[in-house]
Design goal:
alpha+beta; 12 helices
Length: about 475
């Protein structure tokens, strides 16, 4: 009799598993389709009935994570991780890294590795990538620089460099189309910038090389204003990725740039190298050094510029995840690096730049300090609080126009106004396109056609802006 009772119990348990398999399969399909809200609605009652169900907890936690409900996602993902669900450990690893918690990331990546080994699955490339990132983050957290951030400005990503108000001695940050207008050739990376020192002795920019990777290029500007032949600065600056956003200090040796190669924490990181004259007469570059935190983050950080005249530094980042925007931080560079104490309870917050107020000294009037130090003119920027359109238009004759008031020709000024209107349309287009891309990243693949259409419109707007700017230059010279 007991034998039959046990068999009946097993059959009932098997039947229960078969019933519960239906909702899990449905959740899997909805999750793959990107309908995360439907997954949450379907899995909440399942988890309530079966709180230790690994798959149910995983799909609930993963969907909450995809919806940005991070705090609520932790509990079900932790339960799923404890039940051996590898992808739950993977997401918890990413969440720990996003919090700059390398120790917690180590715990979860070990759980991920154990789950993969138990299921006899090979480690994916993402495992190696996140493991390297975890080690690098741990190293960076040991040397977070203590800096004073004066200001942060959220600006359109397409024209972010226009808020860098540098003194003339710091040189000029130019739009990438300046490369072709100055006669250095076509092909400059439209997402990067060009740089020219105050003495106009050379031009630096980013462009795709023969392998299709973006590298830094340079060309000397001769005494007659013509451009010498361009060369790759150093292929090693890419470190296996792409190199962009050059800025050369007035000493002519210290170069800041960004790359997303093997030594990047995630996305683009800011690097520094020094150059010297080689034995063969060319420039030689030392091994690039990651400038560390808080400048760099798991997202894209780029365009470090330091103005020794005003005593201000600038860099841009998309770590705040604002569609179509980047944040430009203004800080006070120091002659000697001073790091935050590793046992400081605010270490993670200072590394993330959770609040720029945390970096500031009590009683200092930073708004007044910024106002006093900013140069009145000299670079493509508009002071905070003004509404005049800002741009940098290289006229090709040693002059750069920063304001509509610089134009002498009314038709040229009108052409520049048309270019600025096109730029405004481009910024809106890029913002809308980023919204579409975010939907695609969350699994809504129905927007793929709209993204392709948007990319074509973006390219058209970029070409139109370049044409209108060239027309403004031509008319001004008549």
């Amino acid at each position: 009799m007991n034998i039959y009772r046990n068999i009946a119990t097993l059959l009932l348990a098997s039947a229960a598993c078969m019933v519960s398999a239906g909702p899990i399969d449905q959740a899997r399909q909805l999750y793959n389709d990107g309908d995360y809200e439907a997954v949450v609605e379907k899995m909440r009652p399942v988890v309530k009935r079966s709180p230790r169900d690994g798959n149910a907890n995983y799909f609930l936690g993963a969907s909450l994570y995809a919806l940005g409900q991070l705090d609520e996602a932790v509990k079900p993902l932790t339960t799923a991780e404890g039940r051996g669900v590898a992808d739950a450990a993977r997401i918890l690893t990413i969440m720990a890294l996003d919090r700059y918690d390398a120790s917690d990331a180590s715990v979860h990546i070990d759980a991920w590795e154990a789950a993969l080994a138990k299921s006899k699955k090979p480690k994916p490339e993402e495992f190696e990538f996140l493991n390297r990132r975890m080690i690098q983050m741990g190293n960076m957290l040991d040397r977070v620089e203590r800096i004073e951030v004066i200001d942060s400005i959220n600006v359109d990503s397409a024209t972010f460099f226009e808020v860098y108000r540098l003194s003339p001695a710091a040189g000029s940050i130019l739009p990438p189309d300046a490369v072709s207008r100055l006669g250095a050739g076509d092909g400059a990376d439209e997402l990067s910038v060009a740089y020219m020192p105050e003495n106009r002795s050379e031009l630096l920019w980013a462009a795709a090389d023969t392998s299709g990777c973006f590298n830094l290029y340079g060309a000397d500007i001769l005494d007659d204003g013509s451009i010498d032949h361009s060369t790759v600065l150093d292929d090693g600056l890419r470190e296996g990725g792409d190199a962009r956003f050059p800025f050369l200090m007035p000493d002519g040796m210290t170069l800041y740039f960004a790359n997303n190669g093997e030594n990047s924490l995630g996305g683009y990181d800011i690097f520094m190298t020094r150059r010297s004259d080689g034995d063969a007469g060319g420039k030689e570059y030392f091994q690039p050094q990651n400038v560390g935190m808080p400048y760099n983050s798991p997202y894209n950080d780029f365009m470090m510029a330091i103005d020794e005249t005003s005593g201000l530094g600038w860099w841009a980042t998309d770590r705040n995840r604002i569609p179509g925007k980047v944040t430009v931080y203004v800080f006070i560079p120091s002659q000697m690096r001073v790091n935050v104490e590793p046992d400081n309870p605010d270490l993670g917050a200072l590394a993330r730049l959770s609040s720029i107020a945390m970096t500031q000294k009590e009683g200092v009037d930073y708004a007044g300090l910024l106002r006093d130090r900013l140069p009145e003119q000299g670079n493509p920027a508009t002071p905070s609080g003004t509404s005049a359109p800002a741009f940098a238009l290289d006229m090709g004759n040693g002059k750069i126009y920063y304001s509509l008031k610089d134009f002498k020709n009314d038709r040229a000024r009108a052409a520049m106004l048309e270019a600025l209107a096109t730029d405004a349309s481009l910024r809106k287009q890029l913002t809308d396109e980023e919204v579409l891309r975010e939907r695609y990243r969350k699994g809504d693949h129905s927007v793929s056609r709209a993204i392709l259409d948007s990319e074509r419109q973006t390219a058209q707007l970029r070409r139109r802006s370049v044409s209108q700017r060239n027309n403004a230059v031509r008319l001004e010279k008549q």
